[in-house]
UniProtKB/TrEMBL annotation:
Residues 1-109, 19-105 form the N-acetyltransferase domain. Pfam families: Acetyltransf_CG (PF14542). Residues 1-20 are annotated as: Disordered. It comes from the Bacteria. Residues 1-18 have a biased composition (Basic and acidic residues). Coiled coil: none annotated. This is GNAT family acetyltransferase. InterPro entries: Acyl_CoA_acyltransferase, Gcn5-rel_NAT, GNAT_dom, GNAT_YJDJ.
Amino acid sequence: MTTEPDEHTHGPEERIAVRDNAAAGRFEAVRSGDVVGIMIYERTEDGIELVHTVTDPAHRGEGVASVLVRTTLAEARAAQLQVTIICPFIESWLQRHPEQATGVVHQER
């Protein structure tokens, strides 16, 4: 996956950039220079496990977690990585956005 931020428009003037902080094992959602959300992941031999998603409480309801999920899934598909979902938020998000589930493997509990 890319380490370059992907810009996503949020509102008329704001952008959310998603960057891969591989050293910390997480994707970070950045707005105006501040990390406003993270998605913790673990790399596997042939894919990526999405473990947990967290949004700064001051930014909940602004679509930060959705941008993290949508960007991560798109980049994983582009890199042909197998995606395993462990995070309950992502599981519920995929129920609301079934078109994004293509190529996603759900972790059985």
